[in-house]
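Deliverable D4.2, example record:
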Amino acid sequence: MITQGYIKLHRKIMDSPLWQSCKPERKTILITILLKANHKEKTIILDSTREKITLLPGQFVTSRSKLAKECGKGISEQMIRSALDYFEKHDFLTKQSTSKSTNGYTLITIKNWGLYQADDRNQPSKQPRNEPSTNQAPTTNKNEKNEKNEKKDIYNKIQQEFNSTCKGLPSIKKISDAREKAIDARIKEHNLEIVLEVFKIASKSSYLNGYNKRNWKANFDWIMNPNNFLKVLEGNYNSNLKVHNPAEEKTNLEIIDGYEYESI
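Output generated by the structure prediction step:
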């Protein structure tokens, strides 16, 4: 799970009947739910079933045990169950099982997600017109620096994961500008987890690892191409790598009276 980024929380939530009626532990659970929700559309793959789910802003998939762990010490699964029922009853969220085959996973949808995000863009500025802004530039520069650092961390993670996962393919020596653009595009279209999942799929493909008539191997740039990326993700190159077995080379031989003869 990616823990980078932030949410904007409006103070008016403290005036809501839901917040005022909540016990302390339920407030902890409520804030954790807001932090877990996606801020933009993305597609995920569930580990247990390989099920692909598209999440909208304000949605996320979790389980009671996972959510209890993320809420911290003192929060039990029973508290999570009770809080989710309470929040659903008060029209704060909806919950539904992702599928019949999933093992305890629940799709959480926060109703009116945008109302819980502070958005002052449409409100007039309270700063006097003739008074220069002294904090705006430093704040902007700091945010830009943080964003660059976050992206650098992602690029480094991509390089490390590709090299360690796709050991049969040419390793990455450097993340060039072109590769940064490709990474940004694939993460925007899908998400970081999907990109790492594609590396795993490619690492298990015999064809992409050179077991083809041309002895051709895929590389990082080929995989990150949008068309190729989607084909790999959809399983078009699925074929598990096999360990070399000399016995398989004798498939055209017949054994007669203890001697091997080539079949005609």
